Amino acid sequence: MRSTITALLTAFAALASAAPQSGGGYVAVGYKYSGGGCTESSLIFGDPIFGNGNVCQPLDRFGDNGPIVSYKTLSASGGCTVKLYTDAGCTSTAFSAPVGGCVQANSPFVSAFVTCVR
Where is the signal peptide (predicted)? Predict the structure, then answer.
């Protein structure tokens, strides 16, 4: 099961890298975790961040995840960087989420802002 999830996330990552920054593709793909440290045992699932970037959006689009305690960016489109926030409006402290790095805050992450330089 984990190998299937890993394969799907790798495919998402490839799509994110190749996605156009206009037209509504993926701008980033990341793993969401219910616990600290981005451990496999606390993996919620991998999820793309849709859109063209440069907009605040919820990490839990459907409101059916538990708290996102840590996050690891798997990939980001060229020229794009990911920042995570603990509030819905992306006005709290920004936490940079570089590709391959695990990030966590004092509160669960609620939203993301992917900045893409065109």
Answer: 1-18
